[in-house]
Amino acid sequence: MGTDVGGAVAGVLARLYEREKATGFPSLSGAVVEARVPLTQAVVDDLLLAGRPADPAKRGAVQRLRLLLLDTDRIALEITVRAFLFNVPLRFEATVHPEVRVPSDPRLHLTLTSGGLSELALNLPQLPDWIQVEGRQVALDLGLLLRRGGLDWLIPLVRVCRANVRPGVLYWDLALQIDDRKDTTNGELPR
Amino acid sequence: MANFLDKYLANDLRDFAGLQVRGSVPVKQEVLNEILAEVLKQGQSDAAATEATPAAAAPPANLDPKALLRHVKNAQVRAEDGRLVLDFEVRIDG
Q1: What's the complex ipTM?
Q2: Within a 10 A sphere around the Cβ of A45, how many other Cβ atoms?
Q3: Is A189 part of any domain?
Q4: How many domains does chain B have?
Q5: Domain limits for position A141
Q6: Tens digits of per-residue pLDDT, A11-25?
Q7: What is the per-residue DSSP string for A117-171?
Q8: Cβ(A75)–Cβ(A96) under 8 Å?
């Protein structure tokens, strides 16, 4: 048997995961998980690059997008947009509202503290759709990003979601819970 | 995204230093029995296998379960209300 036991267990777990994900994790009801996930500036840069074409000609209007983790609950958004023949760099600083109201409103809310509001308004149509702007209020739609990454099944499980920005690191404090429910399956696993 | 995962794994997850996950996960006996059945089935097929049988697909090069297990700081199982509960803590130290 040897090392194949690990492969067999991994195979079962992978199948279980897919099955449970599709049905709301009924076999794991009562599970509670708390996590602190640090995302360093390098990881945030990677995440923003993921899925974007390497070729600048294929990037559309937004040529570059960077989220800088400045200080306690302070970030900067650097965007380079193509306007006519030129690339125009824009920089906005914002305070972060740490609480994310998941599952009802899975968005990280920011308030712009510096940067040209008129410049942002002018370039609104070119911003990615997960960045939503209303006056000085900006919302980063994490729900939309999770859906695109195939991870939206996580949203209904989240009970606490807080973002804590420190210099160079964005900490996510999360609590997930799968509600305990009465077993009506008579011992049968969902298929 | 897969490229990034490979990079983080190759770097021994140092990009995520400070990560902490802890929790309690109840596991139904049906799930445990399913895992056991699969392990037994695998063992029986191994015993019947000949040298000509191709080996199972290898895991991704950077995915080393032993290396990942280093980050598991605590794991224990307890029985509660007719089910097993797995308590665990995972931490990536800086």
Answers
A1: 0.76
A2: 15
A3: no
A4: 1
A5: 28-177
A6: 777 888 888 888 888
A7: HHHHHHTGGGS-TTEEEETTEEEEEHHHHHHHTT-GGGGGGEEEEEEEEETTEEE
A8: yes
Residue B52 falls inside a structural domain: no
Q: Is residue A101 part of a domain?
A: yes
Total number of domains in chain A: 1
Q: Give a yes or no: residue B28 inside a domain.
A: yes
**Short-list A121, A59, A111, CA closest to A90:** A121
Residue in the structure block whose two tokens are 């931490």: B91
> Where are the strands (E) in B1-94, listed by range?
20-27, 72-80, 83-91
Q: Tell whether A38 is covered by a domain.
A: yes
CB pairs under 8 A between A and B: 91
* Adjacent-strand bridge partners of A32: A177, B24
> What's at B56, amino acid-wise?
A
**DSSP run (H or E) holding A68:** strand A62-71
Give yes or no for a cis peptide into A103 (omega within 30° of 0). yes
Q: Residue A43: inside a domain, yes or no?
A: yes
Is B28 an interface residue toward A (CB < 8 Å)?
A: yes
What digits encode the pLDDT tens for the residues A148-177? 888 888 999 999 999 999 999 999 999 999
Where in the sequence is the domain holding B22, given as residue range(s)? 17-46+67-94
Nearest to A53 by CA among A41, A65, A42, A43: A65
Amino acid at residue number A96: V
The structure tokens listed for A165 are 């920005």
Tell me the pTM. 0.79
Cβ within 8 Å, pair B42-A33:
no
Candidate from B4, B31, B56 with C-beta closest to A46: B4
Q: Determine whether the interchain pair B34/A189 forms a contact, defined as Cβ–Cβ distance below 8 Å.
A: yes
Q: Kindly state the tokens that stand for B57.
A: 């697909």
> Is residue A53 a contact partner of residue A59, using CB atoms and an 8 Å limit?
yes
A62 to chain B, minimum CA–CA distance in Å?
20
